[in-house]
Amino acid sequence: MHQDLVAALDIGGTKIAGALVDSTGGLLVRAQRPTPSRAPAEEVMAALAEVLGELAASPEWSGVRAVGIGSAGPVDAKGGTVSPVNIPGWRDFPLVGNVRERTGGLPVTLVGDGVAMAAAEHWQGAARGRAGALCMVVSTGVGGGLVLGGELHPGPSGNAGHIGHISVDLDGDSCPCGGRGCVERIASGPNIARRALDGGWRPGPDGDVSAAGVAAAAAAGDPVALASFERAARALAAGIAATATLVEIEIAVVGGGVAKAGEVLFAPLRRALAEFATLSFVQGLEVAPAQTGTDAGLVGAAAACWNLEGR
Predict the structure, then answer these.
(1) Sorted alphabetically, which InterPro entries does this protein's record hold (predicted)?
(2) pTM to 2 decimals?
(3) Which of 27, 61, 239, 247 supports an S-S bond with 183, CB 3.0-4.6 Å?
């Protein structure tokens, strides 16, 4: 029987995942439900309660000392509420109180999903041993988290490092967040696909109109698909360079579905970064793919819990 486990929750617009995580980052018990993202608040909470119920039914549950949550944001770690852009039913939803109630009053740590990913990469991934890192999730949205001075830096509300909503195009498209020309509006998967389709790209026989379909076409040399990834890479590079200039990071780690495009994304990203990160103290900035994979959210929610509870 394991002691000192964390019940980790990873909440996104597609799925709600949970696991019992031990101090080596091992996932002992898992549970998952689809997120009823368009449903009212209670239905979304019911899906989360099922995940918790499944974890609690495990004999390992007696070793759980705390709950760590990484959620799509924005989150409010102080108030214990979440208002995920992609779960409209949850606006200022009292998530921490609800989870505490259903787990017999265990301590709960809440961070944004980008912060959770940064915690995972700093503990077990590409940012291990680094004093300063920006870790990014590039998928349906673009999120991120920061490691500064060798420690996770979630900020007071748990959202610090939210790179997706830095403006990199002053006269660009308006973003659903209310801003204009945001990194996410250019570099997220759906926006890469939208731009390629608008430019005249058409999917192959498989009909895949997602960013993965565009990546496959780009790898095969399609000029419109290549141009859409080039544009996304430039937006990411501008955001990364701005962050590095501001807080002096050593490495930018890029994960999420879009990063699976590999060199189709990373080659133009490194080129653009050399163009934007020109000051002497940012020139050595490394870019690396994330290493913690699909479990980053769960491992990171647990890591953030230990990290922040321990302070």
Answers:
(1) ATPase_NBD (IPR043129), ROK (IPR000600), ROK_cs (IPR049874)
(2) 0.93
(3) 239
